[in-house]
Amino acid sequence: MTPQTQKELETAWGLRVFDRFTLVLHIFRCNARTREARMQLALAEIPLLRSSVSGDSEQQDQQGWGSRYIMGSGESFSELRARALRDRELRLRRVLERLRDKRRLMRKERVRREFPVVSVVGYTNCGKTTLIRALTGEATLQPRDQPFATLDVTVHEGRLPSRLRVLYVDTIGFLSQLPHSLIHAFSATLEDVAYSDVLVHVTDVSHPDAELQKATVLSTLRGLGLRPALLESAVEVHSKVDLVPGHTTPCSGALAVSAVSGRGLDELKAALEASVLRATGRQLLTIRVRLGGPQLG
């Protein structure tokens, strides 16, 4: 929708009018908690503002205002606004690049300490944060039943049945037809997914569009250029099965889980352990040691 069309509709209806992109941006803005998330949103908003400036410029040209200059600077008002947007975009990109470098250092530290990384991905509001809280027992995680409640990638420590320590990465929820500029703006955040050892793909089976949401997530993950082996070995989880009366275990290999009732959590932990051991080349060994032997000395 062009800025001119938006203004005409608002005038005709006497209401604020939002296109899909603007509405998604607004929801994101309401849920942005950190400086990085707010800056990523500001960067994603640049094309929208640029389009608005372009539309206003055309209207001013038709009214004879486009050629007027500001305080002898040699720039028209529209040119001045366009330059301000370019400068703002450059500043945002510089700061976000520094934050990206910081993320790289954190990833290197995780690799150095040999922590397996499990990224939990899925459609927005599918229950990723609730699942991670159930897997880690981390009480500080407070899931919210609303779209895009998580806009910042966060990392949470947990342990597998063998007591192996792993890091669970809580990621941004995906959305069908998510604007390209939004995906690009959050690319630094989504880099953490690419460096995971294991993916957990969560699908909310209580949602009427569960299959479409699943396809959207898979399409977005492929678009991020993830390693084929990482995608193919993903652990598929059907979440919120407590909301589906009579739900049976699917034959597709997916695990039926309810993070609220605890159903399927033990099976999920066992599957995660097998996937982590396979992906990292680790082995579980049982060693018998005689009581009182020199090994215990």
From TrEMBL:
<dbReference type="Pfam" id="PF16360">
    <property type="entry name" value="GTP-bdg_M"/>
</dbReference>
<dbReference type="InterPro" id="IPR032305">
    <property type="entry name" value="GTP-bd_M"/>
</dbReference>
<protein>
    <submittedName>
        <fullName>GTP binding protein 6 (Putative) (Predicted), isoform CRA_e</fullName>
    </submittedName>
</protein>
<dbReference type="GO" id="GO:0005525">
    <property type="term" value="F:GTP binding"/>
</dbReference>
<dbReference type="InterPro" id="IPR006073">
    <property type="entry name" value="GTP-bd"/>
</dbReference>
<dbReference type="InterPro" id="IPR027417">
    <property type="entry name" value="P-loop_NTPase"/>
</dbReference>
<dbReference type="InterPro" id="IPR016496">
    <property type="entry name" value="GTPase_HflX"/>
</dbReference>
<dbReference type="Pfam" id="PF01926">
    <property type="entry name" value="MMR_HSR1"/>
</dbReference>
<dbReference type="InterPro" id="IPR030394">
    <property type="entry name" value="G_HFLX_dom"/>
</dbReference>
<dbReference type="InterPro" id="IPR042108">
    <property type="entry name" value="GTPase_HflX_N_sf"/>
</dbReference>
<feature type="domain" description="Hflx-type G">
    <location>
        <begin position="116"/>
        <end position="280"/>
    </location>
</feature>
